[in-house]
Structures are given as C-alpha cells and as structure tokens.
Predict the 3D structure of the following.
Amino acid sequence: MVALAVACQPAADPNAGGEGTAAGPAAAPVAEAEPAVAAPTANDAFRAVGTEPVWMAEVGAGGDTALRVEVDYGQTHYEVAAPTHGPDGWAGAAADGTPIKLSVQRVPCQHDGSGEMADAKAMLTVGTRQLHGCGSFSAAQ
C-alpha cells in the first residue's frame, strides 16, 4: 500500500508589491467579519404575522417559492407566484397587479399580541399600505 501526502500552499499575491513565492511562509488567513444582519436566502422559508390589523405572510412554505399574504383579518388574500428574492426579502406583483413586498431584518422581534420572541422584524407592503410585525425562518422543505 502506498500513501501520498500533498501539501497545498497559497500562490503568491501578484498585488502584494513584493516578490513572494508559493514556497514562502503562508500568510495567516484573514477572517471576514460576519454581517450584522444576515440576508434571507432563497432556501429559507419565512412566516411573518402582525396585528392592527391582523396580517400574515409566508414564503417558501413546503418548498414552494410563492409569497402568500393575508390582510384585513384574513379577509383579503394575495399570492405572488414567483417573487424576486433580494438581500432584504421578497417582492413581486399579485395576479391583480397589486405590488407586494415582504422586507425582513434579522434582529430579534417581540410579537405585540403574544409577547413571544421571533427571529426577525418584518414589514409587509401591500400597494401603499405598510404593516409591521415579526417573523421566523425555517429551512424550506
């Protein structure tokens, strides 16, 4: 049996200004700072709720990419079949042309009604109405 061991060295940085070689001492890796607010990813399922008036929005439920919204105490429903996904949430237009945007900020949020803590603050924009609440992420299934 023959075993091979291979060591990898980073290549010299051509922008370093000096003459470095791949065989020279390896520079310590530079740790990148974590962003203070992590953006939602396309694989995240998210559900948000708010009060005054009661509303609900969810995206990515059951692995589906649609953005579903209920406002006015569940009396009015919207669905954005294929919302665009950006660094702060999801957006698109419902079948009737109403613009819908669900903005998410990953900071702890306390629900007004129940006092429970959630993963994020959420702002739902339906047309010109802005509704505020809290939401939580889970992996899309």
Observations:
- Confidence is low (pLDDT under 50) at residues 1-39.
